[in-house]
Every structure is written in structure tokens, then in C-alpha cells.
Amino acid sequence: MVQRVFKAFQYRDFRLMWLGACTSSVGTWMQKLAQSWLVLQISGSPFLLGLDSFLGEIPIFLFSLIGGVVADRTDRRHLLLASQFVQMSCAFLLAGLILFDVVKVWHILTLSFVVGLAQAFGGPAYQALIPSLVRSEDLSNAIALNSIQFNLARVIGPMLGGLALTKLGAAWCFGLNGVSFVAVIISLLMLQIRFVPERTNESMLTSMKQGIRFIRRQRAMEPLIALAFLMTLLGIPLIVFLPVFAKDVFHHGANTYTLFLSISGAGSVLGALVVAGMGNIRHKGRTALLMLVALGICMGGFALSKSLVLSCLLLFMAGIALISVFSLVTSLVQLIAVDEMRGRVMSVYNVAFRGGMPIGSLVTGSLVPVFSAPSVFACNGVLLTALGLYFLLVHRRVASL
After folding, report:
1. Which of 221, 218, 13, 18 is nearest to 135 (CA)?
2. Is 101 left (phi over 0), alpha (psi -120 to 50) or beta?
3. For the domain that residue 297 is a member of, what is the CATH number?
């Protein structure tokens, strides 16, 4: 059973990529914790908290299509290295601004946009690279294990970030994140990449159109991309606005926010382990939609809960459901794509998957001061449940996969 869960680790390049990405993700979550708390502390504004998330994600929505074409035309490793160096520089710059006590909210917002721009090119390259590291029959396992590293970092990162924030100060969270990029840079330099891009004289626009035509020819691809957008639009803001629940609903401090992030991450790790253990199962689409319904129910329950213990339990279950949906939907998209189109297909998927996040964060940040966080997220939970039931019972292309 254990061997089946961790099957993709038998591939050397995947192990290297996983270890480097996990180390970097731990640093990223340390920064995320400190950055969210810092924005809320400096401004006292839930809207600016949502705006920070929006500015970090909107470049991915705007530029991922270009990033996907570049990922199909160049060495994906080189593209990823450039992305890592930009993000590392931004982390060190913020650490310096905080250390010298000159940081302003606009500094944080601007650098969030720059990091998002780097991720718009690095994201499609990273996702397109993973299938070249393992055989196709182990792709679902690799994607689930990749989700584990991200969500394991969501557990370890906030715990370390909470300690660094309260004991050492915010500058340490940003500085340690900068250092963490060294691990992923080293792992990328050690990879033995098998993908060789084809030479082409096509324009960027023509290449993008080819990718979109490929997607439209696949029967279930458009519903999968629509589903990715809607579930992130409604689901991801829960993680972004956990500081608001900690501070304004439960009237606690950074420790409760750290607890919420860690509990959500622990649930996601368990969910990813379950998906990895399933392997290349049948009915991935139906399983993903059932998990989406469960996510909606857990989110609604968390929003309305007045008990810290019950809230933690519901957040843990929501983490399991959230990562199960994301892993399964991503697996389905990767399995449908062919390698020469993978960068472009994953860039369109990124536009939907990552594009829902900033829009959801900005809209939620506007609604929370008017209607309160519990009311907004209870409504989001109902909408997620309805979305899952619609794709299960009415529009059944995803459910049939």
C-alpha cells in the first residue's frame, strides 16, 4: 500500500523536483502567513487583504497563455529557473524593507504583482514538466504527490512562520522564503529533462489559437476548465480570509490564524495521500464532483460555526475535499493533453484555475465588510454544493470520465 501511494518517487528526477519544490513551498507559506497578517495589521482592511491576493494572482490570469506558448517553445527548466530567481529577489527585497521599518502596503501590493508575473511563466512550465518526469500510468500518482508537497508545506510553513513571526519578526519570514528558493534552483539544475521543444516560425498568436482549438476538440476539456475556474472562485477565498475569521469572528490573534492554516493544510495532505493511494482509478470525474459537494457542505458549516473545535474539524474536512477535487481535475486535464500541446493546455487551465482566485478574493473582500465573513462564506458553500450537483446530475461530461 505504501509503495503504491509513493510510486512516483521511484523516478529520480521526480524526487529531485518534489524535494526542491517542497522546500520552496514551505518558505512561500511562511511568507504568505506573515504577509497576510502584515497587510491586515498595517491597514486594518479586509479589502486590502483581498486586493493583495488579487494582485498576486491576476498576472497569472492575464499572462499564462503567453507563458504556455513559451513553455512549449523553450527549455522548460530554464523558464522555471528565471521564475525562481525573480521570486527570490522579491522575497529578499520585502525582508529588507521590513528590517529597516520602511515597508508600506503599496510595497507589498506591488511585489505581489511581480511575483504573480513570474508565476505566470513558471506555472505552465512546471505543470508541463511533471509528465516528462514519470510514465503516463503513474501521472495521477505524481500529481497527487505534488499536491502533498504543496499542502505539507501549508502545515509546516505556517507553523514555522508563526514561530518566526511572533519570536523573530516578519522580516525573518520573508528572508527565509528567499533562502528556500535555493533548494528548487539546485534541483532544477540537476534534472535530466527529456522534453526537446520543436523549432517553429509560427507567431505567438497562432500558437495560442492552436492550443485553444485542441482544447475545444476534446469533449470534456471545456467543462473541466469551467469547473476549475468556478471552484477556485468560490473555494480558495476561504484560505485567503482565514485571518478575518481568526481576528474578527473568534477575536483571537496570529496563533489562531496559524492553527487554521495548519489544520487546513493537514486535511489537504491527507486528501492528497488518499488520491495518491487510489492510483489510476476509474470514475475520476464522478469522485471529484462528490468531493466538490463535500467541500461546499464543510465550508458552509465552517462559516456558521461558533465553536473553535468544530471549526477546526470542518476546516480539516474541507482541506481533504479541496485537494481531492484539485488533484483529480488536474489529473484529468493532464491525461487528455498531448506533450507538444501540454504547455498551452496547462496555461489555459492555469488561467481558469488561478484566474478564479484573484476574482474570488477581490469580490469576497468587497462583500465581507458589508455582509460579514460568515454570511459570505456560507453563501459560497451553498454555491459550491449546487455546482457539484449540477455537473453530477445535469451536465454529465465530467461525471462520465
Report:
1. 13
2. left
3. 1.20.1250.20
